[in-house]
Amino acid sequence: MTNNNNMINKSIYGLLFALILIGCKGKEGEEQTVVEGSEVVETEEIASADKPLYNSYRGEFIYVADGAVLNGKNFIYGVKLDSMAQVLADRVAPVKESEFDMVEVIVYGIVEPKAEGEEGWDEVLTIKEIVSVSETPSPAEIKLEEKN
Question: In which domain of life is the source organism classified (predicted)?
Fold first, then answer.
């Protein structure tokens, strides 16, 4: 009977140890921030020794020939038209039903003021990594219909 109790105790301690390891995994070097205007919601930042921390941004993305925008709950940022913006546009394209559909995305990036003398949005998001892209376009707040 004592052997059974020892076996049960060892199993319980093993399970607790495993849970503690799982609970602590990934805590080092991470901060919890997704920026939605002045709101901070849950996710983690990218952190490693060779690159700085980037915030996560969740919003509706639209890309047209001469610009891109990320529209969040409490913000609207112009998106820097670089290779990462093009990759995101390519990932969003199959989801869109029309040219002007917006698709919810989560990206890591840096928001900076626009360059002096440059036209466009006051703040520009430079995308550093794409976290997720919705499988459906965002519902339109205003629906335009053509009448004959």
Answer: Bacteria
Query: What DSSP element (H or E) covers 128?
Result: strand 123-137
Task: List the alpha helices (DSSP H) in 2-78.
Answer: 2-24
The answer to whether the beta carbons of residues 135 and 122 sit under 8 Å apart is no
Question: What architecture (CATH level 2) is domain 34-137?
Answer: Beta Barrel (2.40)
Q: Using CA atoms, how far apart are residues 51 and 41, in angstroms rounded to an integer?
A: 23
User: How do 76-79 and 123-137 pair as beta strands?
Assistant: parallel
Q: Which two tokens stand for residue 44?
A: 């983690």
Residue 89's nearest CA partner among 72, 107, 76 is 107
pLDDT of residue 120: 87
Q: How far is CA 125 from the centre of its chain?
A: 12
Asked if residues 110 and 123 have their Cβ atoms less than 8 Å apart, the reply is no
Residue 29, phi-psi category: left (phi > 0), alpha (psi -120 to 50), beta (remainder): left
Find where tokens 């805590």 sit.
27
Which H or E run contains 41?
Answer: strand 39-41
| Residue 81 predicted with pLDDT over 90 | yes
What's the whole-model pTM score? Answer: 0.63
